[in-house]
Target: Voltage-gated potassium channel regulatory subunit KCNF1
Amino acid sequence: KMAGDSSFPDVDTDGSEKSEEMEIVVNVGGVRQVFYEDNLNQYPETRLAELVNCLSGGYDSIFSLCDDYNPGKREFYFDRDPDAFKCIIDVYYFGEIHMKKGICPICFKNEMEFWKVDLKFLDDCCKAHLSEKKEELEEIARRVQLILDDLGIDASESRWKRCQKCIWKFLEKPESSYPARVIAVLSFLFILISSVVMCVGTIPDLQVVDAEGNRMEHPTLDSIETACIGWFTVEYVLRLISSPNKLHFALSFMNIVDVLAILPFYVSLTLTHLGAKLMELSNVQQAVQALRIMRIARIFKLARHSSGLQTLTYALKRSFKELGLLLMYLAVGIFVFSALGYTMEQSHPETLFKSIPQSFWWAIITMTTVGYGDIYPKTTLGKLNAAISFLCGVIAIALPIHPIINNFVRYYNKQRVLETAAKHELELMELNSAEGKATGSKSELEDLSREGKEGPFYSSRIKVSHSDTFIHLLSEEKHYRTRLQSCK
Model:
């Protein structure tokens, strides 16, 4: 009777309510809410506003909007998240929506899409959480895609392409195999040896004197340096040849550091053998010494093999605001206390404060609590000014330190969570395929990598996984969650 009957005892033939103002009773996950027609019609494109006019369309129209309907109570039932619904209905009363703490931003976005409420009504503070979550999901999707690409072997590719991929994995991904880990360790050791040789070569007792009386590095150290540069050169050339995007590879910061670590050796070698014919010998030696100083850039190559250094770099990038505040505090303090110190010390006949710009150096080493003692106040007021300056310096330095440390810890923990989430997605895919929902975990991963992100096969296979992290980013279809589904 319910499925075939399209008439309602409380609805006129023209679909209008007998009472002047129609009430809409909505039950969402066991939470009952009563709405009035005037409030809902403020936003006629929303799902709740459509309930006002759906009664005249019969049960087909009703069940296209809700999960169940009680004609006796005229109550609409929805199997959705009641906590999210309580936040979403604020748009009808306040014109904006605030997301409660503890609700997953992506799930809340899906709830807003289900209730057909535009995201523009979401407050800016909540949009920031949503954007951050989207970035995390995109990063997880990117990591999973990279893993799938590594596992897949496309038979249609040429032998050279497959060789390029093998070399790239061998040099760029130490976790891919045991030989790749050995190469990463060797590269790390070559960087350390090269840095140690550069430092040891400056010890006078280990240097030798050439025929012209100039001191130069010991030939043994020079040979070790040449071997290290040879390793760096071969490594860079192989990585460049196997790179899938050579322009992006060449412009990457770490690869620019690699070039700066290698280039001075060859330029110095060229100037030593050919430069003497083009310019004076003294100019050649000065140019060679200047280039040799650039060898310190190779210490930054350690960041390629150290996740801690990479995390520190990204944390500092995210702490530009705090670092800017620190520099501003110090700059204001240096200017003020150097000017006061210069003014107060002018009465002393043996003053060391000759000018305000010269006093900047004293203010810097005082506020940073270094205190070399080469410049110091001699008057009572000058000493008092110095005491206040280093106290203010300690406070100015300490204030932004805590946010910077928090950024480091937050980014480090975030990277660990993203790495775990990516592995979890792959485990879910393998688990579901092992249960018979796919043709096999290994073949599935290979097919996924062959089809690519935009292929229909990829979308159909990714839906096998029931995880809530990145599936909706990789699939073209939208998957709405119900309140019975958990959120990780």
